[in-house]
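REVIEWER CHECKLIST
Item 1: Sequence provided? yes
Item 2: Single chain? yes
Item 3: Sequence as submitted:
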Amino acid sequence: MPRFLRLQVNVPRDTLIPADAAVMTWHFRTNEVGTVEQEAQDIVTKMIVFYDAVDVYFSLNVGTLWHYSTYDLEQPEPRVPIYEADVTHVPGTTALPAEAAICLSMQALPVSGLNQRRRRGRVFLGPLTVATGANANGDMRPDPAVRTAIVTAAGALTPNFVGATSGSEIEPCVFSRATFAVSGALIDAFVPVEQWYVDDAYDTQRRRGPAPTTRTVLTDV
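Item 4: Structure as written out by the authors:
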């Protein structure tokens, strides 16, 4: 039977306040050749390579020590990480508003009779640098070169990779909570990613925005 693992990448803000961190969540299915701890380590190793390729697009307002936590979804809640790592990344030197993000989308192959919306997923990369943008007829949009770099880095994860430590084949997957709620089986809710794409528009993640510190008020007297 395959294993089902979740990776969370915690990118802190320079405030070092935990609530200000951006968290990006990924899911993987393995073929259980090595131990689950070895597979978790292999996932983190591979994802460090991904984020090394794109960390320059992150805002100067994020911290440099990112935390990777991997969970075995077959364990009962509340789960504890089965493998963790703190990794130094080097973000960019400028900043867009903290809410701005680039959406890396993924999807499984369409299958007749199955709802394709449950076979799509996304990871919101950010906070971002100004350098991710390009002027398109007066409208700032994600630069085509940046979009290409992101999907190229993601493409190195599929169709699967072999873990150097575990020897397991590891597949990035879309995890559908809706499917899991109906079937109760992780094997039904995990489908392998077959396509990555990035649109030429920024997304907004309001929860990543800073709290206001002051207010300008006009009183009509």
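Item 5: Key structural point noted by reviewer: The chain has one domain: 3-207.
Item 6: Recommendation: ____
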